[in-house]
Amino acid sequence: MEQHVREEWEKFSELLSKISGYGEAIGLLHWDLRTGAPRKGAEVRSGTIGMLSGELFRLETSSEMGAFTEYFSRPDVGSQLSEVQNKIVKDCRKEYERSKSIPSKRYEEYAVLAAHSETMWEEAKEKSDFASFEPFLSKIVAFKQEFIDYWGVKGTRYDTLLDMYEPDLTVEKVDEVFSRLRSRLVPLVEAIAASPNKPDTGFLNQIFEKEQQEKFGLFILEQMGYDFEAGRLDESVHPFATGLNPGDVRITTNYLLDNVTSSVFSSLHEGGHALYEQNIDKKLVGTPLAQGASMGIHESQSRLWENMIGRSRAFWERYYGDLQQHFPVQLADVQVEDFYRAINSVANSFIRIEADELTYNLHIIVRYEIEKLIFNEGLTVKELPQVWNAKYQEYLGITPPSDGLGVLQDVHWSGGDFGYFASYSLGNMYAAQILNTLRKELPELENLIAAGNLLPIKEWLTDKIYRHGQSLTPSQIIEQVTGEPLNPDYLADYLEAKYTELYKL
Amino acid sequence: MEQHVREEWEKFSELLSKISGYGEAIGLLHWDLRTGAPRKGAEVRSGTIGMLSGELFRLETSSEMGAFTEYFSRPDVGSQLSEVQNKIVKDCRKEYERSKSIPSKRYEEYAVLAAHSETMWEEAKEKSDFASFEPFLSKIVAFKQEFIDYWGVKGTRYDTLLDMYEPDLTVEKVDEVFSRLRSRLVPLVEAIAASPNKPDTGFLNQIFEKEQQEKFGLFILEQMGYDFEAGRLDESVHPFATGLNPGDVRITTNYLLDNVTSSVFSSLHEGGHALYEQNIDKKLVGTPLAQGASMGIHESQSRLWENMIGRSRAFWERYYGDLQQHFPVQLADVQVEDFYRAINSVANSFIRIEADELTYNLHIIVRYEIEKLIFNEGLTVKELPQVWNAKYQEYLGITPPSDGLGVLQDVHWSGGDFGYFASYSLGNMYAAQILNTLRKELPELENLIAAGNLLPIKEWLTDKIYRHGQSLTPSQIIEQVTGEPLNPDYLADYLEAKYTELYKL
After folding, report:
1. A338-390 pLDDT, tens digit each
2. Where is the active site (chains A, B) (predicted)?
3. Catalytically annotated residue among A108, A270, A306, A371
4. Burial class of B349 by CB neighbour count within 10 A (0 to 12, 13 to 18, 19+)
């Protein structure tokens, strides 16, 4: 590398490190707001988050950033850089160009609104009062529509949003994989509904003490290999994971007294996200590559741990005894097989995050279609509760009794995250495809799980996926790990095999 | 106000609000690091705090700040501003000029040295090895001497340092009040030492369960009027209060199993700081006036609540029964009067932060006199241990057996905080003087306290002090509230009356 290139790269690294620092501060301000910040400070706090997001935005769109990314994009300069360095330049340039197109004042106003809107959503959800939230959500949607124009429409307007979470993915492709998936899942769901072999889930409807739930959750996280010296577990309304830096990756959960499985599986889920971020190569710290490859790949890891490992028979052969010890009264007369069948019970329900792994995809399809309607067909926010309820009736055969159990249930839209939901089902598909390879390369997988020996799984995933962070694209990862592009049949195969056996179809 | 002035003020307000936001973010990053951030993230976190502190400094010394404060300082412009606005301009200008006067290269060298020096101090304190720390402290002092020249000498050289923490206070004035105070306290301390009526403190040396300590602390904070919707209580090694904004003022405490009084009085102390910041007028949010008037006035509020209310007989007449209920075994045979006498036991000890409210002032006077000798009389750092020990012998009748228990005990000097110590005793004096007025204006004060009716006290303090934030100077506050300037006799009177009765002198 020529001396001038090296010197420029050092200066560029300082800028990247500053950008990372702003990201960490904003991440903590958000985390704090959701986990325990006092109510009366929330308004000023929202302003602070907005201001710092504006500063971060300013750095990402600075003339410095423009000049650096232009310089390092030159073929004679880029050829002197490593692959990782070229990926950094490429991602920064993409972000620069996308952001440059939005006037910074508009972006800052949006950020203030989004932070405030989240607080309003929390209250509205609690009171099941969509009307109080509607003006905020309408403004968020209006901002997104405005931003789509700034960013430029690729394919349809909604494609522009999809691309932010899953690069190179289109409405056309998602429509295709979702319809293939649906065509195999719908008959499966129908067969299950018709099966006389329903699991007994009655024993789940007991009071499970919060303290014991917390203890068991901490134990399971430790078993997965979650590093508590590089993270912590807290409570929030909506569980989430946030990587402030690879040495500080926090997760939250929500304890429902009458539902022990909710906190257990949300800990496994967020724990999967967190394992990913804790195990990113330290060399990537301070660069934009110190994060997951995409939302879909990130979600594949939470789903793999929550469902494919955490809802497997082998897992509970090992850990059910521990759960019984935490709840000796509640689970005294419940056999492990009955527990396994109960936690895999398929039911058409209202709440996405409590849905089983099979119907979950229908919850996603509802949201995906509604988002498409908003951005491609002009559906108004006011109409959302009605459309939401109609689609739930159509796909799941149920109508939410309140907006708190319906359109208000998710945090995503309140923060402007449209285009995100599809990632969840993409994650399921990636996860099943990765699991298929994992089984080939660790043929003893079921035995390892049944022995509580989960660390080899974490190590395999670290080697194949986690350590790379965002230095590979989602399609590079899925092809390098599994040898083929995204293929929804692995998920359908996995679900068919599991549920055919479980429901004796 | 002319339109141009109004428009400029709006732009200036945006800059001020941005500065406030950086302060809030840095405050939260610090709070988090001290209360529960995972260990492995600490190094990256420190870098993030350093980066944001640099950004904040850049804003405070920006050409924008220079131009705004110069413009608003013009008589024809200033005359159109409110009193509060003029105070904002004055404070910002002072900070700007002070920071600007130091060549940035020298300041950076100093910052590196100060950080290193703190680490060296920690090691030296642990080994009680002053010689290893001396070269670093000498360099810190040399830098401070250089900075005094940059800042400009007002009165004596040490005046320049004092002014940073307690505006308008001079060496002449502090000399006068400290020597008056000392002349009354030294004989009092001697008389107590000679008194046969020593309280029994043996029962304090028991195990007090942490959970119960926490419950009692939360109860007392609630009684004081601390607003838990605008704050929270956490644990940290060293207790502190931090006002992120007036709607988010957090406090921490530290539970010592073998010392229940430590957490109780640190909660009252930090609670006093927090009441101040929670009750600052919301109109001042986003300006540099949304903080305490000075270190001394801030300290007066922690001391008033901790000592003058919290260590009063009336307070424990009301709350001792509650404390007993929290520790029924430990305090079963201890009468309230014995408890009151034990928590007010006076002892000549080596460590400032463990000192009682009476001898505490002598610890401060030692430090004040030594700082003055350094900056006004050329006392060398090498001579410090000898001078320190001689002064402890003279005022407290004891000679530290090691420098770890003597000159090395405090962190302040290692980080360059010369001029700060005086604030602690100024706080005691302000508190006693304010208490004297409070007693006149709420003649039923003792009865209110004994009835657990503390809110009228909080309301009175809010009206007289808290709501003003930094919009008044310390001397304006003390004169407006009490009708006269700082007068050390109120503290001496208070201490003489209390301890003469307590020790039957």
Report:
1. 999 999 999 988 999 889 999 999 899 999 999 999 999 999 999 999 999 99
2. 270
3. A270
4. middle
Which one-letter DSSP state was computed for residue A309? Answer: I
pLDDT score of A259? 87
Residue B96 in contact with residue B61, Cβ under 8 Å?
Answer: yes
CA dist B490 and B304 (Å) reads 13
Q: Which CATH class is domain A171-502?
A: mainly alpha
Q: Residues of A marked as binding?
A: 269, 273, 299
- For the packed helices A360-377 and A422-441, what is the interaxial angle rounded to 10 degrees? 140
Show the CA angle centred on residue A241, arms to residues A239 and A246, nearest 5°: 165
Average pLDDT over residues A224-239: 95
The A-side interface with B (CB below 8 A) comprises 17-18, 20-22, 24-25, 28-29, 32, 36-45, 47-48, 51-52, 55, 227-232, 244-245, 247-248, 250, 285-286
Parse chain B into domains and list their residue ranges. 3-100
Q: How close, in Å, is residue A176 to chain B by CA atoms?
A: 42
Q: Tens of pLDDT along A415-426?
A: 999 999 999 999
Average pLDDT of span B355-380: 97
- Is residue B190 predicted with pLDDT exceeding 90? yes
**Site of tokens 């930094």:** B470
How far is C-alpha B302 from the geometric centre of its chain's CA atoms?
8
A394 burial type by CB count under 10 A (0-12 exposed, 13-18 middle, 19+ buried): exposed
Confidence of residue A427 (pLDDT cuts 50, 70, 90): very high
**Which ipTM did the prediction report?**
0.91
CA distances from A471 to A88, A281, A405, A435, A479 (A): 8, 10, 39, 22, 14
Provide, as residue numbers in chain B, all residues whose Cβ is less than 8 Å from the Cβ of A244: 41, 45
Check residue B331 and give left, alpha or beta (phi > 0: left; psi -120 to 50: alpha).
alpha
Q: Among B200, B178, B182, B180, which residue's Cα sits nearest to residue B190? A: B182
Contacts of B128 (CB under 8 A, 6+ apart): B402, B403, B404, B405, B408
Residues B469 and B276: their CA atoms lie apart, in Å, by 8
